[in-house]
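Working notes for the structural subgroup meeting. M.R. asked for a predicted model of this chain before we commit to crystallization trials. I am recording the input and output together here so anyone reviewing the notebook later can reproduce the run.

Input as submitted:
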Amino acid sequence: MKVGTVVLRNAAGPGDLDSTVARAAAPGVSWARFDDAMLYWTSDDDRWPAVQRWANSAGLALEQHSAPDRIHDLYLVIQVGRVFQREHRDIPVLLDKGRYLVVAMQPD
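Returned structure, recorded in token form:
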């Protein structure tokens, strides 16, 4: 499994951000938008090099993260303050938008 993020910094306003998001929708992989950040993931590791080439050609800086073994190990966490991060320092955070986190962990 591969996971990566892109921060959409070049958008000037909401309309610009929406057009940038349309450009940032990577073909062939799953994605989710968190305000000005995009999270991409695929369980097909062979597809990832094409995603990296696509991001480069689109002028986007794709940052690859350590990924869990299974898609089922990605979780969306909604936290108050930084409580989750303080209480679970050992859990990798793949995307940090303050209140909203995408983390990789195995269920207990």
